[in-house]
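tool=predict chain=A
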Amino acid sequence: MSVINKNKVSNFPHIANLLSSLLLCYPEIAAINLEPRANVVKFSFYIDNVAKKKLISFKKKIEQSLLAYYKLEKKEVEVCSFSFQPLDVLSLIEFKRDFWTISQKEIALVIALMREEFGSSLVTEKDDELVMDDLSLHEELIDYILENAKKTSTNIKLVALRDEGRVLVYNK
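tool=predict ok
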């Protein structure tokens, strides 16, 4: 993992650890963008090209699932959107959420719904050397880091992405 810190902000390591932990725990996530001024975190996923009709159907399903989740959790969200962009041989799915109300459980729910809907079409980077002995323990750690990162503010735009088996975190 490479971490570059040009601004020497004290909470940079916490947020960089959060983004890299998310990428390590969820190999389906291709990239994460944190836009602190807009209070938005954007998750990017790639899927093998599927019919536009299936993407529209999935968007309705996931929006309904998240609305039910928000109601059960008594959570009010400012930003929650999905977008799709067809590329040459893949499609890009982007999930945007406001950073201050997102939770690890919600991220896990989104990924579980994507796995269920797209199966092997969801591009996943598996690392044979990384073995998650206890996924629930790792998810608890992510939840802890996420809640601590929310307690501090940052003006640093961060991007975390995968590159040939590595996780890179840098500021834009």
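Confidence is low (pLDDT under 50) at residues 1-9. The longest strand covers residues 40-48.
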